[in-house]
Amino acid sequence: MILPAAAALLAACAAQPAARERSMSTPEFIRGEVRVTEHRHGDDLLSAGLGLAGLAGLPAPFADPLHPTPAELRRRAIQASWKGIADLGPLGGYGRVYGGAPDVPGREYQAFAWIPGAHAPHRVLLQLPDGFDTARRCLVVAASSGSRGIYGAIALAGAWGLPKGCAVAYTDKGTGAGYFDYADDSGAALDGARARRGEAALEFEPPPASRDAGIAVKHAHSGDNPEADWGRHVLQAARFGLAMLDRAYPQLAPFTPQNTRILATGLSNGGGAVLQAAGWDDDNLLAGVVALEPNVRVPGQGRALYDYATEAALFLPCALSDARFDATPFARAPGTQFWPLRCAGLHARGLLGGDTPAQQAAQAYERLRAHGWTDAAMQVAATTTAFDLWRAIAAGYASAYLRRGAADMPCGFRYAAMGPGGVPGVADPLTRAAWWADGSGIPPGNGIGLYGGTDLSPDPTLPGALCLRALWEGDGAEARALRAAVEATAARLPRKDLPLWVLHGADDGLLPTAFTSEPYVAWLRRQGRAPLYWKVPHAQHFDAFLPLPGFGERHVPLLPYGYAALDRLWAHLYEGRPWPRELPTPDARPRGAGALERAALGLP
C-alpha cells in the first residue's frame, strides 16, 4: 500500500505533469518531442469517449472534415482499430459474454522511436490510466496487428490491461497509415494531422520524387524491411513505457523489469512481433508472452507468409471454383464467377493439367492440399481471396523485402490515389485528411488503389501474381534478395523460464496453423521449452469478419481466449498461481444462428 503522504504527492504529480515530466530523461532512441495528452471527462483511453456502442457505430465525425483536429483523428483511429480487430456485431457477445470497453481516464505519451540504422521511425505510445496500480506494477507491451497504426492492438492489450490498472505500451512496428502523398509532398505528423515535408517531423518521409510518384507507405517503402526488426520495436516500446512511468511517478522511480512486470501480447503480425521480442530479450525485460494467431516463422520449418500468400494468390481462385466449395461463404460472391478463368490461365502456362474447368479446379485443390492447406483453411480463405487480399499482401511485402520505393515497386505495382472511374488520380482532400485514422497500413483502401501487374487478358491480375510468385521460386538476384530478407525475419529461441502461450484458430485461412504456430511450438518443445498451445476449434483469423453473412454461425471469436490466457498469466505473476505445463484446449463450438453464449466458448 502507498502511504497517504506519498499518495498526495502522486496526485499532485498527476495534476501538474508537464513541468516535472520535462525534467526527466528521454530514452536515447527517441528523437524529437514526447507528446503528452490528457484523456478524461468524455474522452478516455480505451474508447476515446465513444463507449462500446459508439465504437460499433458509424465513423466518428469531424467538425471540419478538411482539417480534423488531433483529438478527432485519435478518436476515429481508436474506433477503426477496434472495428478492424473485434467482433462488435449484435450477435457476437462482446461486452456481454466477454470483453468490454469501460471508461478508463488517463494520459498518453507518444513519440517517434528509431532502431539503429533505420530510415524511418516506428511510433511508440504509452497509455497510463489514472487508476494505475502502483502496488502491483504492471506494464503490457503490444505490437499492432497486420500493418495497422499505433492503436492496432488496443482491442487486445488495452481492453485487457487498462481496466486492470496496467499501463499499456504500444508500437506500430514500422507500419501504420502515415501515408506520404507525393502530389502535395505531405505526410502524417506526430499528432496524426497532415503536414508537408519540412513543416513538422513526419511518421514517414521518403526521399523526394516527382508529384506523380503516387503514394508511399511506410511498411512497403521505408527501405528498412521492418519485419526483421519487429522484436526490437517491441522491446523499445517496453523501455519507452518504463521511462514514461518514471516521468509520471518520479517519487516511485525507477521503474524496472525487476519491480514492474512486463507482459507482451499481440495478434497476427503483432503476435509474431512479441514472439520475435521473446527471442531478442537478452536483458530479460519480459515476464511473460501471450501471442494470438502469430505470423511466426522458424527456418526450415513451416512456410513463410510470402510463400503461401503468393501460392494462394495464384491457385486459390481456381481451387475455390471446385464444386466442393459451393456452400462456402463468399466462394460464390459477386466477382467470383471469373475464378474459373484463373484455371484456364494456369492451364495455358502448363501449371495445371486437365481438359475442363472442373478438372483444373480439382487439380488446383489437390496441389494446395499437398502443400499443407487444409479444407478448413481453404474454406475460410474464400473471404481473403474474394477481397483480393493475397495480391495486396504479396505486392506490399515484396516491396518491403526488396527495400523498394514508391516509384520502383516489384512487378510494376504502385499505389496511387483513386480518381473517377477507379483510374489513378489525385487524392480527395477529405479522404487524405483522414488517412492516419482510417487506413489499414497496406492499400488498397481509403481512396488508394493498387495499380500495375495487370494486362488486358480475361484474367488481368494473373501476370502480377505470376511475377510475385517468381520472386519466391526464381534463381535471379531479386529472388535471392527477397528470400534473404524473409530469412532475416525468423524467430529466435526465448529463454527457458519465460512463460509463453500461443493461441491460434484451427480454421485460420490467412495464417494457417500448419505453416506458422504448429512448427514454431514444435520447435520450442524440441529445444527444451514448454510453451502452452491452444489450437482453438472453429476460430479463424478475423474476429471482425464474424458479423459477415455465414461467418458467425460457423466460427467462434479468438479474443476471449487471449483474454483468458492473459488472466492466467496475471494470476501466475501476481498471485503465485503455478504456471501449467499443459492445459486442455477449450471445447469451442460454433454459435449457430443465435447470439453467442458463454458455453459455446468452452472456457473453464
From TrEMBL:
Cell inner membrane is among the record's keywords: no
GO CC, any one term: extracellular space
UniProt keyword Hydrolase present: yes
Keywords: Hydrolase
Gene Ontology process terms (BP): butyrate metabolic process
Source superkingdom: Bacteria
One term of GO molecular function: hydroxybutyrate-dimer hydrolase activity
Pfam families: 3HBOH (PF10605)
Protein name, entry field: Hydroxybutyrate-dimer hydrolase
Origin species: Fulvimonas soli
